[in-house]
Amino acid sequence: MKKVVEGSHAVSEAVRLARVDVISAYPITPQTHIVELLSEYCSDGTLNARFLRVESEHSAMAALIGAASAGVRTFTATSSQGLALMHELLHWAAGARLPIVMAEVNRALAPGWNIWTEQTDSLAQRDTGWIQLYCEDAQEALDTTLQAFRLAETVHLPVMVVLDAFFLSHTYEPVDIPEPEEADRFLPPFQPAFCLDTENPAAFNQLAPPNAYMEMRRSMQDAMESALDVLDAIEDDYERLFGRRYGAVEAVHCDDADIILVTSGTITSTSRLVLRQLREKGEKVGLVKMKAFRPFPFEALRIHTAHAKKLAVIDRNFSFGAGGIFAQEIRSALCNLARRPLVFGYVAGLGGRDVTTDVIEDIYWRTKTSAHPEAESIWIGLHQPAPAA
Amino acid sequence: MIEVRFHGRGGQGTVVASILMAKAFFQAGYYVQSFPLFGVERRGAPVEAYLRLDKTKILMRTNVYTPDHVVVLDPTLLEGVDITRGLKPGGWILINAPEPPTDLRAFATYKLAHVDATRIAIAHRLGTRTHPIVNTAMMGAFARVLGEPPLETVTEAIREEVPTKPDANMAAAREAYESVVLLGPVAEAASA
């Protein structure tokens, strides 16, 4: 049924439909509404799950590692400093091959204190072995969360469902919420391949010396590499049941495009509007939406951008001393191709600064009128310092 | 696409008003989007909330800069907040006030409506005499000003979503719908 709900609550509804067994969380803006509604569902019996209140995000992830090791379905949500505090255990959850699902509401890191959206928090966790899927609107956040459980439980890796603070998390919009029986047809109960079992004792996560560790890491990479095909098959099922699919990468008007905007998160939605306006003016512009960041969708990206002359990558994140993170990865994905587009890296919208249609159009025209990128990263919309007196 | 900005003070139900209007417009067949000013809310401080309406899926995911209409839940805001900021000429300004403002010069290019939502809220015992909750009355008045959504969709949204005194809140919305004064274009009203 279609209802007008908050983006955060679209995630909560998906977790309810997934019939999660254990939720553990520590509140942090702008994530709090997700677990707030889930705690209400746990207390009023709507969801038959244990809700563990803990003293930190580190403990929240530790609790889920324990619960998932015992073979049950688990969920948490966090943002920014909370995710940073979990960092050690993010590696543990992935290395232990636990199918934990986490909603990550992108928020800029302090100091200065900032509760607004920026992707640097989640992208700083790119090497932890978590799958990362970035969402554009509340419907996609719901659908992706539900799919994330099946993906995680199939490839034995944890999944981070990533959404923008406020522009998605605190925005109310119509969302089609599946009925529980429909969701059950899509997502069967979790059947762990291995778990702590007193009837069948085994040791987990023991010493892995040099002659074993490397194979364990290769097996994680194999799982990551399989995740895109697995996601595709999961989306086939989802589309059959619910009529919606997204793709790890979505290409809009890329076949004849000279310049392709590359976006993630809610900037994608606004870019669709800009794309429509520029197309009406006869501009040969396309759009690539990056949904999957881990695993990185090398092949799809190469196919969709093969004919373009230039890519304009919009990064709402930054790696100091290097550049926008999506732009870096896209450059490296294309660098060995004989024929490849020039990659223009734009940094915009840090700390929740608005990325308006004007900002996106400015990025397009700068890209069109420049023969080469003027810098590794081009910062858009910086306030000019006051002239010296 | 129609964009609406709500002005109020923390604790008056401004954000809830924009969400419930989104739900009412959705029932009336619109695509909707509603969100608060992204920040830290404090009781009594000026707050803003936004509503977008369209007949097709809304792709714009930015702040609202040039609203088509504004709704002012607290008339004391007129002294400190530029409520016409970015407002498109010809747009409606709906103010919670028993009388229109005496100085209309700042509103010359807009259309004005007012409703005594404070009196209505107190009469229906919504909030306290010093802190009446005026949001549901303003919703009813706003539905009349725009000519949509139908009043029943507004009262239905209130019935479904307002946890305390739903009947009194629905009655307040109905009374405000009936009693809102539509002055129309300020330039014409001033010259008449």
Automatic annotation (TrEMBL), chain A:
Entry coiled-coil feature ranges: none
Biological process terms in GO annotation: carboxylic acid metabolic process; response to oxidative stress
Domain of life (superkingdom): Bacteria
Single GO MF annotation: oxidoreductase activity, acting on the aldehyde or oxo group of donors
CDD domains: TPP_PYR_PFOR_IOR-alpha_like
Domain Pyruvate flavodoxin/ferredoxin oxidoreductase pyrimidine binding: 14-231
Pyruvate:ferredoxin oxidoreductase core domain sequence ranges: 257-358
Name the UniProt record assigns to this protein: Pyruvate ferredoxin oxidoreductase alpha subunit
Record-linked Gene3D superfamilies: 3.40.50.920, 3.40.50.970
This protein's UniProt keywords: Oxidoreductase, Pyruvate
From TrEMBL, chain B:
InterPro entries with a match to the protein in the record: Oxidoreductase_gamma_subunit, PorC_KorC, Pyrv/ketoisovalerate_OxRed_cat, Pyrv_flavodox_OxRed_cen
Key words, A-Z: Oxidoreductase, Pyruvate
Gene Ontology terms for molecular function: oxidoreductase activity, acting on the aldehyde or oxo group of donors, iron-sulfur protein as acceptor
Pyruvate/ketoisovalerate oxidoreductase catalytic domain sequence ranges: 10-178
Pfam families attached to this UniProt entry: POR
Name the UniProt record assigns to this protein: Pyruvate ferredoxin oxidoreductase gamma subunit
